[in-house]
Design brief:
The chain is of the alpha/beta class. It is built from 11 helices and 19 strands.
């Protein structure tokens, strides 16, 4: 039997932004990774907090990038939020939508009526990411929630990745209403809530799924909450310093520079690596020395820091280690 990491799982659930693509450009190697999984007979699913595209649009976008995808393989927070609202309110009920047209379409498809003003007397406010969201619709939302409308957020990602660096995400827009209303949303649907993960596993009849993401506070925490193994890839938001500082509920099973880690031995990615030396690196107490693959050094330091050595006490004792810690902001 293959010792490839992916061979130990019967479903791989990918996050999208920062894992498969950045905004609208594929991350190198992503298409090849998905095709290789399919060739090996491993089902895939895509679970995203981004509420600005519908499942069919996401599948079309992926396919256009050379990443094979079907609409029923895509689970997003817009569809999940609309489904929750349809369970709570009668057909035709007015729902104020803060977000992109995709979110309005999801609300409409479940039989509810998207509205845009407080005067429409919405029974709920659903808030998802949309690049055109501005003060006016946020004001209508604030008035509606204050009047008693249920406030549902598709997700609370503070940022979203881009080729130019992290940009404000839906969580930043939710924070505007949180500040104005001095309260939290009544419900957050997307990750780190486990629903997208458990639904993906259920649809595939998966008994041993693996979640792959780039964010510790959503992808990895959601997988931990769902009782699933997870792999952090360092192509998006969360970097080495954040991983080292992660509390137990945000610690992945594996870490890899990119999706190629799916096809290497699991023991080359497993966290933490509790050893004094590996792959040319050595850890002596809080001191890193040697040289080699940066991910191996990261795994060694996770073992050290997660076992109690304070992050701020890490030091370097070789030029390569010095450069690495500096690059990580340590």
């Amino acid at each position: 039997m293959s010792d490839e990491l992916a061979s130990g799982y019967d479903l791989v659930i990918f996050d999208l932004d920062g894992v498969v693509y950045l905004i609208d450009k594929p991350i190198p190697g992503a298409a090849e990774a998905v095709e290789r999984l399919r060739a090996d007979g491993t089902p895939v699913a895509y679970a995203t907090n981004n509420a600005s595209r519908r499942a069919a649009d996401v599948a079309a976008l992926l396919t256009g990038m050379g990443v094979p995808a079907e609409p029923d393989e895509v689970l997003n927070s817009a569809g999940a939020a609309a489904a929750v609202l349809a369970q709570r309110f009668p057909a035709g009920s007015p729902v104020l939508v803060v977000g992109a047209e995709a979110l309005r379409a999801e609300v409409r498809e479940v039989g509810l009526t998207p509205v845009a003003t407080f005067e429409d007397k919405p029974v709920a406010v659903v808030q998802g990411y949309g690049p055109e969201v501005g003060w006016q619709i946020l004001a209508e939302a604030a008035l509606s929630v204050r009047a008693g409308a249920t406030w549902v957020a598709t997700n609370t990602d503070r940022t979203l990745p881009s080729p130019r660096g992290p940009l404000p995400g839906n969580g930043s827009l939710v924070a505007v209403l949180r500040t104005a209303l001095d309260r939290e949303p009544d419900l957050v649907v997307g990750k780190p809530e486990p629903g997208l993960f458990t639904t993906a596993a259920s649809l595939s009849n998966s008994e041993r799924p693996l979640a792959v993401g780039d964010r510790l506070d959503t992808d990895i925490q959601g997988a931990v909450g769902a009782g699933m193994d997870s792999m952090l890839v360092l192509t998006g938001v969360s970097g080495p310093a954040e991983l080292l500082a992660a509390p137990p509920e945000r610690r992945p099973t594996f870490v890899s520079a990119d999706l190629s880690g799916l096809f290497r031995p699991a023991d080359e990615a497993r966290l933490p690596l509790r050893a004094t030396e590996a792959g040319g690196w050595r850890v002596d107490g809080s001191t890193l020395s040697g040289s080699g693959d940066p991910v191996t050094a990261l795994r060694l330091l996770c073992g050290t820091v997660w076992d109690g050595v304070p992050l701020e006490e890490l030091t370097a004792d070789s030029p390569e280690a010095t450069d690495l810690l500096k690059k990580w902001g340590l």
